[in-house]
Amino acid sequence: MKKVKVAILGSGNIGTDLMIKLGRSPVLELTSIIGIDPDSDGLRRAKAAGYYVFDGGLKPYLESGVDLADIVFDATSAKAHIRHAKALREAGKFAIDLTPAAVGPYVVPSVNLGAHLNEKNINLITCGGQATIPIVHAIGSASPVSYAEIVATISSKSAGPGTRSNIDEFTETTAHGIEAIGGAKKGKAIIILNPAEPPILMRDTVYAVVEEGADRQAIVKAIHQTVAYIQSYVPGYRLRSEPIFDENKITVFLEVEGAGDYLPTYSGNLDIMTATAVKVAEEYAKHAVGIGTGI
Amino acid sequence: MSRDIVITEVALRDGSHAINHQFTVEQVSAVARALDEANVPYIEVSHGDGLAGSSLQYGLSRTPELELIEAAVSVCKQAKVGVLLLPGIGTIKDLKTAAGLGVGMARIATHATEADVSAQHIYRAKELGLTTVGFLMMSHMAAPEKLAEQAGLMQSYGADVVYIVDSAGALLPDQAGERVRALKQCLKIPVGFHAHNNLSLAMANTLVAIQEGANWIDGSVRCLGAGAGNTQTEVLIAVLDRMGIQTGVDLYKMMDMAEEIVSPILQVPQEITRDALILGYAGVYSSFRLHAERAAKKFGIDSRDILIELGRRKAVGGQEDMIVDVAAEIAQLNSSTKIR
C-alpha cells in the first residue's frame, strides 16, 4: 500500500516527538515540519532528518504549491489552531488537532476511532482526557455513570508553556470530553503539577459513580479490556492497582510511562497525545485509501 | 482606624477541611456577621480547596459554596469577602461568578514552584476589580531564593500581595523568617504569611514573619482550619495588642464569637493529634489528615505510615488521590510480609 503523506504543524515538544513516532509508521509518510522558529531544536532535527522544513508558519507552506501532505497534525496552541483550522479546511487537508481548541469533534480511539473519518478536522481533547475518558466509557458500558471525575497529575517538567498559561482549557475541555465521549452524565477534571525530582510519571485517577447494584465483575472486565487496547498504541499505559469499589463509587488508578522518543519517559502525558495522533491518522489513512478518496 | 497588620480570617475556607466541607448557610452567616462586627477586614469563604473544590477527590460540599459566599457577602457591612482559587481546579469562569456575588478579594494559589500557572487568573482578578493575592502553597518545599523568584512572577502578573503559605505546618521559625526576608528584599508589594499549627509553631512563625516585615496575616478563629488549624485569630489579636501592633480587630468580640459561635461548629475541639503532628513532621499538606484517617481505617493500617510515605514521595497540595493509592500499597506490603 502506498503511504499517505503527512505534515506536522508545530516544532515544540509534541511536534518533535510526533516526528520520531511517524518515522516508524508503516502507513504514513512524514514529509514536512512547519514551525515558526528556525532555531528551535525541533526544526533543526527535522532538517537533519531530511524532511522539508518551513519556518514561516502555515501560510507559506500552503502557498508553496507543492502538495506535501493530506493529513496535517496541529501541535501548536488552541489559539493558533482556530486560525489554522480554517486555512487547512480551505486547502482540503485532514487536520488532527492536538491542542485543546476543540474546533472539530472529539476522538478517543477506544470509543469512537472510526466515527469522524469523513470530517476534515478532529480534536484529541487533552492528554488527561485520552488517559481517562476510555475508562469512564468502559465503566459506562457495564453500568450507567451518573458522575465521573478525573485527576491528572503530571511532572512540572513535562508541562510546557502552552499548558501553563492556559490551564483552564485543560479542565474545561477534559470535563466536556468526559461527558460527550465518556458518556458520564456530569464530568469534572482536575490537573495538578508536581515538581518532584526525579520527575514523576503521569498519574491519572478516575472516580466514577454508578448505579446501585452494578455488576462489579463486568465493570472490572471492561476496564481491563480497554487498558489492553490502549496498550496496543501506548505501551506504557497501565493500571496501578485493581479498581477499588466503595459502595457505588469506583476508583481507578492509572499511570502512563512515555516511550522516551523525544521526551523522557516521565512525559507520559505528551506521549499519549502523540501516540494517539498517530493511531488516529493511520486509521484515517487506511479508510481514505480503502474508499478511494484519491489520497 | 489604621491597621499595622491586615488580618484575613480563613475559618470559613480552611476550616471547611476540618469539618469535611459541611458548612451550612446559617453557620457561615453567623460567623461572617460576627467577624464583620469585630472589624476583621477580610473573610475568606470557599470550599477548602477553593472555588470548584467540591469533588470526590477533596470531598463534596454539603452546601454549594456560591450560596455560602452569597450569605457571607449579605451580612458583611465593612469586611470584604474573599475567595480562594487553585488553577487546575477552579477556573476564571468560577472567579467571575464569585465576583458577581460581590466578593472583594481573590487569592490565587499555586504550589510554591509553579507560580506561572496563575498569570491569567491574577490578571483577570485584577480586571474584575478584586484585591488580588498570590498564594504560594507548600512553601517549605522551596528554598527562599526560589520562593522570592516565584513571588516576583505573581507580582509581575499584577498581584497586590504575595503570601508565603506553610500548608504543611512544617516550617521552623528560622525557615519562616528567611523566606519572608527573601521576599521582602525582592518585592515592591506587601508580603503575607499563612501558618498551620501542626508543630505548635503557628504563632511563633507568624511573629517571626511579622518581625521580618510580613504585614498580611492569616488566622483561623478557634483554630478552625486543616490539620491542627492555623494561627488562632483571637489569640493573635491579643498577642499583637500586647506588642502594641494595631490590627483594628476587637479582641472581646473575637473571643466571644470564638466561644459562642465557632466552638459549637467544631465536631471535635482542635488539638494537635498524632496525625496533625505527623503532617508537620513529614511536610504533608494539612488537608490530607482526615483522608488519611479514613484510608487507614479502610485498609487496617496506621495513618502515620501513609502520611510519612506521602511526604517521602513529595506529594503536593491537591494530590489526595495518592492517599488511597499509597494506603493500598502499604496494606499489600504488610500482608505479603505477614505471609512470609
UniProtKB/TrEMBL annotation, chain A:
The keyword NAD is assigned to this record: yes
Single GO MF descriptor: NAD binding
Annotated InterPro entries: Acetaldehyde_dehydrogenase, Acetylaldehyde_DH_C, NAD(P)-bd_dom_sf, Semialdehyde_DH_NAD-bd
Signal peptide feature range: none
Annotated binding of NAD(+), by residue: S11, G12, N13, I14, S158, A159, G160, P161, G162, T163, R164, S165, N166, N269
EC number from the UniProt entry: 1.2.1.10
Active site location: C127 (acyl-thioester intermediate)
Catalytic activity field: acetaldehyde + NAD(+) + CoA = acetyl-CoA + NADH + H(+)
Enzyme class: oxidoreductase
Keyword Repressor tagged: no
Top-level division of the source organism's lineage: Bacteria
Location of the Semialdehyde dehydrogenase NAD-binding domain: 5-119
Pfam families: AcetDehyd-dimer, Semialdhyde_dh
Entry keywords, A to Z: Aromatic hydrocarbons catabolism, NAD, Oxidoreductase
Matching HAMAP family: Ac_ald_DH_ac
Family: Belongs to the acetaldehyde dehydrogenase family.
Entry protein name: Acetaldehyde dehydrogenase
From TrEMBL, chain B:
Full protein name: 4-hydroxy-2-oxovalerate aldolase
Classification via Gene3D superfamilies: 1.10.8.60, Aldolase class I
The keyword Oxidoreductase is assigned to this record: no
Residues of the active site: H17 (proton acceptor)
Family label: Belongs to the 4-hydroxy-2-oxovalerate aldolase family.
Sorted UniProt keywords: Aromatic hydrocarbons catabolism, Lyase, Manganese, Metal-binding
Listed GO MF terms: 2-isopropylmalate synthase activity; 4-hydroxy-2-oxovalerate aldolase activity; manganese ion binding
Site (Transition state stabilizer): R13
CDD domains: DRE_TIM_HOA (cd07943)
GO biological processes: L-leucine biosynthetic process
PROSITE patterns for this protein: PYR_CT
EC numbers, comma separated: 4.1.3.39
HAMAP family according to UniProt: HOA (MF_01656)
Gene this protein is translated from: dmpG
Positions with a binding annotation for Mn(2+): D14, H194, H196
InterPro entries reported for this sequence: 2-IPM_HCS-like, 4OH_2_O-val_aldolase, Aldolase_TIM, DmpG_comm, DRE_TIM_HOA, PYR_CT
UniProt keyword annotation of Phosphoprotein present: no
Catalysis: reaction(s): (S)-4-hydroxy-2-oxopentanoate = acetaldehyde + pyruvate; (S)-4-hydroxy-2-oxohexanoate = propanal + pyruvate
Binding site for substrate: R13, D14, S167, H194, Y285
Domain called Pyruvate carboxyltransferase: residue spans: 5-255
Catalytic EC class: lyase
